[in-house]
């Protein structure tokens, strides 16, 4: 632009042939009166004209430059901060919103932590007698029985243990201790899920040695009766990975829910039931389908220890750091909804939701898992309707009270619409695109 405005070469020569291209500027009255016209019909710029025009154009340049800077600052403030990448292209960076500090503080408090620590200490000491709810553990009784003929000095039947008991006992203690040591808040755990979950599954499938890329697409299939309203079967099966929950039935429902299962995601209560079966059979989708399980109660590591030895496919326990992250996110949304809907104080939340037992659902953590190991996530069968069954494959009538499903639905909405407002997840982790099918 400076060369065009200058009307000639920088050394003061006329440059006559090129000066006709700036004629548009001479429509200004105070310039037109000073502009002689050559007999050839072309504009002629005299040396005197050059000297008078150059200062004006310099002022014009300064005005344009100042206006450009002002406009750029206004745009920055309206769109958020920007940065230049390696190619000097302006890239918009959306600032993370300021979250409610009080909600974050309350969500980070684990009301049941003291009770859980006490239970874990008893388990590590081998004190199962005080855990009355676990006396029906069938698999563990294979290695222990009471001899009613031989009694202790107190008159109680003597507990006899088989030689195999000690091998499983040592494995149980080591697994539980490792899990407890890992139980802490670590917001960047999402970035480690590929290493913790995907790579062991790839190795099982004969794909060891591949890079750390995530699965291209994943379908997380819930169990809601709303699945019966649509024929999503083919759409679900077309994903690279299909994650199903808590051994939900697919036979007879293929047109609605598909038939493909890549990962079986369960809570440890499901494995506890499977442990009662011969060989700890827990494979409705086939013995080669990997199982990912989160621990509802620390004592379920007894089931894991025994059943893990009989599984051909990987039986993976979610990292305790991942569990803590999921728990905080769900509690944050539950607290937020509780205050907004009821108008009550945060201190009253615990009594309303049985705070010590409050927990995320299997579906919520399965979706969180998919966010960490998949480039694109599709969600099916989450939600409810007055005209739909609670579960598409059972006659269960109601939700479990230890979950806050409405709070989890609010979380899913933010995953799709406003992922930047989701708390506790590290800002370095990029949440992949999520689509929810109703």
TrEMBL record:
It comes from the Eukaryota. It is a single-pass type II membrane protein. The keyword Glycoprotein applies. GO terms for cellular component: Golgi membrane. Pfam families: Glyco_transf_29. GO terms for molecular function: sialyltransferase activity. Keywords: Glycoprotein, Glycosyltransferase, Golgi apparatus, Membrane, Signal-anchor, Transferase, Transmembrane, Transmembrane helix. The keyword Transcription does not apply. It is found in: Golgi apparatus membrane. Belongs to the glycosyltransferase 29 family. This is Beta-1,6-galactosyltransferase GALT29A isoform X2.
